[in-house]
Design a protein that fits this description.
This protein is an alpha/beta fold. 47% of the residues lie in helices and 14% in strands. The protein has a single domain, classed as Alpha-Beta Barrel (TIM Barrel). An 8-stranded parallel barrel has the order 1-2-3-4-5-6-7-8, surrounded by 10 helices. Helix 3 runs parallel beside helix 4, helix 4 runs parallel beside helix 5 and helix 6 runs parallel beside helix 7. It is globular.
Length: 283
C-alpha cells in the first residue's frame, strides 16, 4: 500500500469529527513502530520528519526507508515534511516522494508567508501532494525544541482567511495557546478563537504541540475543527526515559537491544494517541 496525500486523511477526519495523529519519527525503527500499531488498530496516521531529524538522515534516505516500510506494514498513512524551513527543502521532499509538505514561514511577514506558500502549492499540487501552512506563531516552551518561534502569537481569523484564500493550502496550523515541547504547566487553549478560525477558513485545522494536552481539551479542540494533532515530545520522552532506565539498571548495553525495548514502549504511546484522537478503526 503506498502513502496517500494527507488531504485525503484529513478530509475524512474533518467530516467525521476525529483527528489523525501526526507522529514525529526520526529513524526507520520509529517509522516501523508507528506503522505496525496503525495497522493493528486500523487507524490512519501521518509519519513526519523535519529539520530536527534531517541532520541524521537526509529526506531522501528517510523517504526511501518509509516507502519500503509501508510496503511491508501496509497502513493508511501519509508521509509529511514537518516545519520545512526553505523552498529548497520542500523540493527535496517532493523529489523524495513525500505526500505532504509544510513550509513554515509563520515567523515572517504575512506577505512573505503568503507568497512562499503560494509557490509551494504550485509545486506540490500538480503532483497530488498536500500542503500545510501556518499562520500565527506556535512557540517553544523549552530550549531543546527546534520547531516554532521564540514566542507565540495567536492566529488572527481575518489573516487566516486571507492566507488560505491567497495560497491554496490544504491544511492550516493555528496558534491558540498551544506550544512545542514539554509543558511546564497545562496549556490554556483559546476555544473561542478556535471556533472563529473554523468559521473563517474552509480547510482542516492542525494542532501542533499535542503532547501534554489534557484529554478534555483535546476532544473539545477536535470538535471545533482540529483534524490533525502533532505528537513529538511524548514519543521522544518515552524513548529517552526507557534508554536511561535500562542503562542505569545496567541492562542492554548493546544499543540495538536497548532500542528494541524502547520501541516496544513507544508502541504504547502511539496506541494511546490513536485512541485519544478517535482515529482507531477509521482506516
Amino acid at each position: 500500500m503506498p502513502f496517500v496525500p494527507m488531504s485525503e486523511l484529513l478530509a475524512e477526519a474533518y467530516a467525521a469529527g476525529y483527528a489523525v495523529p501526526g507522529f514525529c519519527v526520526w529513524c526507520p525503527e520509529a517509522m516501523q513502530t508507528v506503522l505496525q500499531v496503525a495497522r493493528e488498530m486500523r487507524a490512519p496516521v501521518i509519519l513526519m520528519n523535519g529539520p530536527a531529524e534531517f541532520p541524521c538522515l537526509a529526506p531522501s534516505t528517510l523517504a526511501a526507508a518509509a516507502h519500503e516500510l509501508i510496503a511491508r506494514y501496509p497502513a493508511q498513512a501519509a508521509l509529511h515534511l514537518d516545519h520545512g524551513e526553505s523552498l529548497e527543502r520542500v523540493q527535496q521532499c517532493l523529489d523524495a516522494g513525500y505526500t505532504s509538505v509544510m513550509l513554515d514561514y509563520s515567523t515572517r511577514p504575512l506577505a512573505e508567508n503568503i507568497a512562499a506558500l503560494r509557490e509551494v502549492c504550485s509545486l506540490a499540487h500538480p503532483l497530488g501532494v498536500t500542503v500545510e501552512g501556518e499562520i500565527g506563531v506556535v512557540g517553544k516552551v523549552e530550549a531543546s525544541v527546534v520547531e516554532g518561534g521564540e514566542a507565540s502569537a495567536l492566529t488572527d481569523p481575518a489573516e487566516a482567511a486571507e492566507y488560505v484564500a491567497a495560497t491554496g493550502v490544504d491544511a492550516l496550523a493555528v496558534a491558540i495557546g498551544n506550544a512545542h515541547g514539554q509543558y511546564a504547566r497545562l496549556p490554556r487553549l483559546d476555544f473561542a478563537l478556535l471556533e472563529r478560525l473554523r468559521q473563517a477558513v474552509p480547510v482542516p485545522l492542525v494542532l501542533h504541540g499535542g503532547s501534554g494536552t489534557p484529554d478534555a481539551d483535546l476532544q473539545r479542540a477536535i470538535g471545533l475543527g482540529i483534524a490533525k494533532v502533532n505528537v513529538a515530545t511524548d514519543l521522544v520522552a518515552g524513548v529517552r526515559e526507557s534508554l536511561l532506565r535500562q542503562w542505569q539498571e545496567g541492562r542492554n548495553p548493546w544499543i540495538p537491544s536497548a532500542q528494541a525495548e524502547a520501541m516496544a514502549g513507544m508502541a504504547g504511546v502511539v496506541a494511546g494517541w490513536i485512541r485519544r484522537t478517535g482515529a482507531a478503526g477509521r482506516a
